[in-house]
Amino acid sequence: MTISFNHTIVFSRDRSVSALFFTTLFGLPDAVAAGPFLAVGLGNGVTLDFATSPVEVLPQHYAFLVSETDFDAIYGRICANGMDHWADPRKARPGEINRNDGGRGVYFHDPDGHNLEIITRPYGSGG
């Protein structure tokens, strides 16, 4: 049996603001309305379905494996927008990226406080 991840719901204070932040920062096509959600498609057929939450949004962690080229573009937008970012999840290395497993990675927040991460090599892949 093959099991593939298909979608997840990302709760936000305003689904439009959050979906636009994500598509703009990641350089993705506009979100598509899907019932009460705004679906943002990722390259592997997975969607992030943004929903406006009726209760306080609790921060979650979302990590994305990106190419070196995409990392450069996304990180460039993070810096150009003056966004806080860290090399580590504990925020002990502000304004830096990491070089874990021979790749690059960085942590930052979306407008709802979700902890986002982009990496160019999966953890444990060596390097």
From TrEMBL:
Q: What superkingdom heads the lineage? A: Bacteria
InterPro entries associated with the record: Glyas_Bleomycin-R_OHBP_Dase, VOC_core
VOC domain location, by residue?
4-121
Indicate what this protein is called per its UniProt record. Answer: VOC family protein
Q: Which organism is it from?
A: Rhodococcus parequi
